[in-house]
Design a protein that fits this description.
seven-stranded parallel beta sheet; elongated; alpha/beta; TIM Barrel; 446 residues; 14% strand; 2 domains; 42% helix
Length: 446
């Protein structure tokens, strides 16, 4: 038989994916200052100077000359394609004693890149720098200061230290001037600051001629820093141990940023109000064609079903250090079995759920659910299945102790499916005999 289409809110899924993949990681790192360095601890009278978007054959040599005259070292975050086109400039930067970092190959925002393109962007830039300098790349600064979940994981995997900035001088915008750049820098600079300037105007959004203003302002900035008693030092003098990023800790913080918002927007709530539970639930109206259920009933358009969601924080705490996917699935099944009686009591006693016809979930961990009373259905091929498959694999890889490498062996088995149980089957299997109203511990409606 053809599998009916479940009208899971497509916009909500896209929003969840975009928030989890792009927006939340960027907010967490840029504003939460987690997993990257944007300033150094105070107390050393130190400031670091960095340049983005080069190398540029016109502007970069002039900046190198100014830095040489003032005996100052900086870090140049280079765009891979520009470095590839100007190998001698890359060598000049390193030979002058400056540091060099990865700023992406095409200066594209990673919000628009998938995992493969993100990895390629980082790898190609590293390869270019290492080929021309013979040095291993240690620092990275993503274009526009934007992140996605895969870029965070890949920086960690490659041992790259993410370096941002303390404040903007807006030297790349229209209407700027040497005086405005100098004023903004000297008025805001403090001990431990990381300064960002630009030595190219060939990237999207950059005002033409902006680096010329930087070149004119730079000597005054360097003199002003000296007058303030601040010394310019290489990035390597800024300790970064306390800012070391781990994927799991970062993702758990990311989840806290947007999880509450997404649940509120999509009507998902905890099964046990005020208590930790393995399931989160939402009420949905079925909008597909008539769907014959295993017990002979039919789920029809307009009827209500309960959508089940795994509480990922609870799952992570439950699986602990178990790295086998089979073991993870068994642990998850045990938790599901323990909470199905709670759902049965909820449907029996809470008036908000008296019209529920079935329970439904979409999950990769569907093996063995038939022993609990669920029936598994294949999802129709299409964008929804592709998005859910990618999202759930990504989530499982980040939360699972074995990570993505361990999950690679299960790629063919990790296919999302609908699992369904009718209200009648749920009650027959899990509603305790002689249930009293006082036994309900999940909150009552009217």
């Amino acid at each position: 038989m053809d599998t009916p289409f479940i009208d899971t809110p497509f916009i909500q899924i896209l929003l969840l994916l975009f928030l989890s993949y792009a927006v939340a990681p960027t907010v967490l790192i840029r504003f939460g200052r987690i997993g990257a360095i944007s300033r150094a601890p105070r107390g050393g009278g130190r400031v670091a100077l960095t340049f983005d978007d080069g190398p540029d054959p016109f502007y970069t040599p002039q900046i190198l000359g100014i830095l040489r005259d003032h005996q100052v070292k900086a870090c140049f975050f280079v765009v891979g394609s520009k470095a590839r086109a100007n190998p001698e400039l890359v060598r000049q930067i390193v030979e002058a004693g400056h540091e060099i970092g990865n700023h992406g190959f095409w200066h594209k925002p990673v919000w628009l890149l998938g995992p493969v393109s993100t990895a390629r962007d980082i790898i190609e830039t590293n390869r270019t720098i290492e080929e021309f300098t013979g040095q291993k790349v240690r620092y990275c600064r993503p274009a526009w200061g934007l992140f996605n979940l895969f870029s965070i994981a890949y920086y960690q995997l490659k041992g790259l230290k993410v370096v941002l900035w303390t404040f903007m001088s807006w030297d790349w915008t229209k209407g700027t001037s040497p005086e405005s750049i100098t004023r903004k820098v000297l008025n805001r600079v403090r001990d431990g600051a990381i300064l960002i300037l630009h030595d190219s105007d060939k990237t999207a959004g950059a005002a033409r001629g902006g680096p010329a203003h930087v070149i004119e302002a730079l000597p005054a900035i360097l003199r002003g820093l000296q007058q303030k008693g601040l010394r310019l030092v290489p990035l390597e003098e800024f300790t970064m141990k306390k800012h070391r990023l781990t994927v799991k800790s970062c993702f758990r913080r990311v989840w806290g940023v947007y999880d509450w918002t997404i649940r509120k927007l999509s009507g998902i709530r905890d099964l046990r109000e005020g208590k930790s539970s393995f399931f989160r639930i939402a009420l949905r109206r079925y909008r597909g064609k008539d769907w014959p259920m295993p017990d002979g009933s039919v789920l029809k358009a307009g009827e209500t079903y309960m959508e089940l969601h795994i509480n990922n924080e609870r799952l992570l705490d439950t699986i602990g250090d178990n790295v086998k996917v089979e073991r993870t699935a068994l642990i998850a099944l045990r938790e599901v079995r323990s909470e199905l009686p709670v759902i049965a009591r909820l449907l029996e006693l809470d008036n908000r759920y008296r019209h529920i016809k079935a329970l439904l979930a979409i999950t990769l961990l569907h093996r063995g659910t038939e022993h609990l009373g669920f029936t598994a259905y294949d999802m129709p091929k299409g964008p929804l299945r592709t998005l859910i498959s990618w999202y759930e694999r990504w989530m499982l890889g980040l939360y699972h102790p074995g990570g993505f490498k361990k999950l690679g062996a299960y790629r063919d088995k990790l296919v999302p499916k609908y699992i369904v149980m009718t209200r009648q089957d749920l009650m027959q299997r899990y509603l305790p005999a002689g249930l009293g109203v006082g036994e309900l511990d999940v909150g009552r409606g009217t």
